[in-house]
Write a structure and sequence with these properties.
Helix 4 packs parallel to helix 6 and helix 9 packs parallel to helix 10. The chain is elongated. By secondary structure, it is α/β, with parallel strands linked by helices. The protein has helices spanning about 15-30, 65-75, 80-85, 95-110, 125-130, 135-140, 170-190, 210-230, 250-260, 280-290, 300-309, and strands spanning about 5-10, 30-40, 40, 50, 60, 90-95, 110-115, 145-150, 165, 190-200, 240-245, 265, 295-300. It has a ten-stranded mixed beta sheet with strand order 6-2-1-7-8-13-12-9-10-11, sandwiched between helices. It folds into two domains: about 1-155, HUPs (Rossmann fold), CATH 3.40.50.620; about 155-309, Rossmann fold. Strand 9 (about 165), helix 7 (about 170-190) and strand 10 (about 190-200) form a beta-alpha-beta unit. The longest helix is centred in the last third of the chain and has 18 residues, at about 210-230. It comes from Pseudodesulfovibrio alkaliphilus.
Length: about 300
């Protein structure tokens, strides 16, 4: 399913969990793995100094500094490289991290980008700050390929992956996410759980819906899932459909825990606007920050469409 995986890392401890997933996934898929670090932001114009993204210190840019950074990365991931180094390349660049990550992903035609929700260890990581890092947000917004976001150690990802949760709001963007989730489930041979949470806070049901209105909304959602997704699944029979009412991100997290999900797949946004203009949805952001398993953000249908051809 993946031939080339780009793992973007700052080399800090908050990237340890994404590193484990990136190396394990690359090994399982027999994929090439690019271990990528952006050295820093040019301090001004064409200055020969950069601001180190890990320490915040100004560093003189040169071959020696770049070689030192790559050596540090090699030492940091020494154990993983001993096991999977023959298909791993360490690369670095200078510039704005999100721009350089996206540039490399396009140039290398990466199938998947793996990142943490926040790469700044001094800020405590995304799960402590309750916000996603700017680099993560920009990459998820503009990436043409799926972005796998890991915000904490995954204790259930032993088989990468064994239970996939696809969450839908029936948006056009969710259709691409479904294609990714279905392909992953078929490729791995694992169950696919299709989930929809009826949003009781949206006002679509009249502000304070009756139980009859809720039941009608759930029945309609189940019917839409059958027509929109199940009808495309052919002979693939390892799936379940579940619809619940409540606050969407809360219900998604509860359902993922119940099913011991080790991958949640969601669309980057729900609005019907060009992917490059869409901001990350609030439901996805809350799931990313609180999920105990990796979350795949699908923003663009190109990767799915190209892979299907």
């Amino acid at each position: 399913m993946f031939k080339k995986i780009l793992f973007a890392t700052s080399g800090t401890p908050v990237c340890d969990s994404p590193a484990k997933i990136a190396f394990d996934l690359a090994e399982r898929e027999d994929a090439e793995l690019i271990l990528f670090h952006v050295l820093g932001v040019p301090s001004r114009g064409f200055s020969l100094e950069v601001t180190d993204v890990r320490t915040g210190d100004r560093e003189g840019l040169g071959d020696d500094y770049e070689a030192w950074v790559r050596e540090e990365l090699s030492n940091t991931y020494d154990n993983q490289l001993k096991q999977y180094g023959y298909k791993t390349r360490i690369q670095s660049a200078v510039g704005v991290p999100a721009t350089e990550i996206l540039r490399l992903a396009r140039r290398e035609n990466a199938d998947l980008i793996v990142m943490g929700a926040n790469t700044r260890s001094d800020e405590g990581g995304g799960r402590h700050r309750s916000i996603m890092g700017n680099t993560m947000l920009e990459v998820a917004k503009r990436a043409k390929c799926p972005v796998l976001i890991i915000n904490r150690p995954c204790n259930t990802c032993w088989n990468l992956f064994s239970n996939i949760i696809f969450c839908t709001d029936f948006s056009k963007a969710a259709d691409a996410a479904f294609q990714f989730a279905l392909k992953a489930a078929k490729d791995i041979g694992c169950p696919l759980y299709i989930f929809h949470a009826l949003n009781l806070q949206s006002g679509d049901l009249g502000g304070k819906p009756t139980q009859a209105q809720i039941e009608a909304g759930l029945a309609e959602a189940r019917e839409r899932i059958q027509k929109r997704y199940v009808s495309q699944m052919g002979e693939f029979g390892m799936f379940e459909v579940e619809c619940r009412e409540g606050v969407p991100y809360v219900e998604i997290l509860k359902y993922a825990r119940e099913k011991e999900g080790d991958l949640v797949v969601m669309a980057h946004h729900s609005q019907d606007i060009p992917p490059e203009e869409a901001e990350i949805g609030s439901t996805l952001e809350e799931v990313v920050l609180r999920s105990s398993c990796p979350v795949a953000s699908i923003n663009h249908p190109d990767w799915v469409a190209a892979d299907a051809r």
